[in-house]
Amino acid sequence: MPVDVPVYPVALLPAGRACLVVGGGAVAARKAAGLVQAGAIVHVVATEVRAPMRGVPGLARVEERPYRRGEVASYWLAVAATGDPAANRAVFEDGEAARVWVNSADDPQRCSFILPAVARQGPVAVAVTTSGHSPALASFLRAHVEQQMGPELEELAELLSELRARLKEQGRSTESIDWRPALSWAMLDLIREGRRAEAKERLEACLSQ
After folding, report:
1. 27 CB-near residues (< 8 Å, 6+ apart)
2. Which of 67, 89, 115 is the last residue of a domain?
3. Of 102, 56, 55, 54, which is closest to residue 81 (Cα–Cα)?
4. Is residue 108 in a domain?
5. What's the structural domain count of the chain?
6. Looking at residue 74, what DSSP letter applies?
7. What pLDDT digit, counting tens, does each position of 126-160 carry?
8. Which segments of 47-168 are extended strands (E)?
9. Is 171 inside a domain boundary?
């Protein structure tokens, strides 16, 4: 992926899908851990499996061997993080041939997707990307966003989810409601102060509009 091409942001749902991580070091371990956290079935292949990777819980299979050309075709998604440009290139080329998404660590030219820096609070996730120009800048911005994200965001998300579920039960479209009049920093202040009932009333007022 050329670094000057705009990205198309998506949020993948890898739960229950087989994903391959090629590489056994610290970078590969971080990426494998993120996939496991998202519910993916993670297989690891590396010529040397180091301590950080051995410490990742929940891996489905770990094999200490070189990557075999073409094996990426058996997976839904792959990450190449070997530190060996030739090996990473082989994974990417095989992924392109098999139409499997591949992320090559520190090599945006050989990626069909890139991994943003993510700040999380419960179900709320804010992703920051520089389109491959500077992961360090993305991490810096992520840290800034994290400072603004408190537990009140998670509670607000739960309130909104409850109201959307009620709309669906009534056969109403959840896309037809304009929540913007109720969503504000003042709403978060109400939840932070324990005034959940008042916050819910403000949200419910949107349903009658």
Report:
1. 81, 83, 105, 106
2. 115
3. 102
4. yes
5. 2
6. G
7. 999 888 788 899 999 999 999 889 999 999 999 99
8. 61-64, 77-80, 101-104, 117-121, 124-128
9. yes
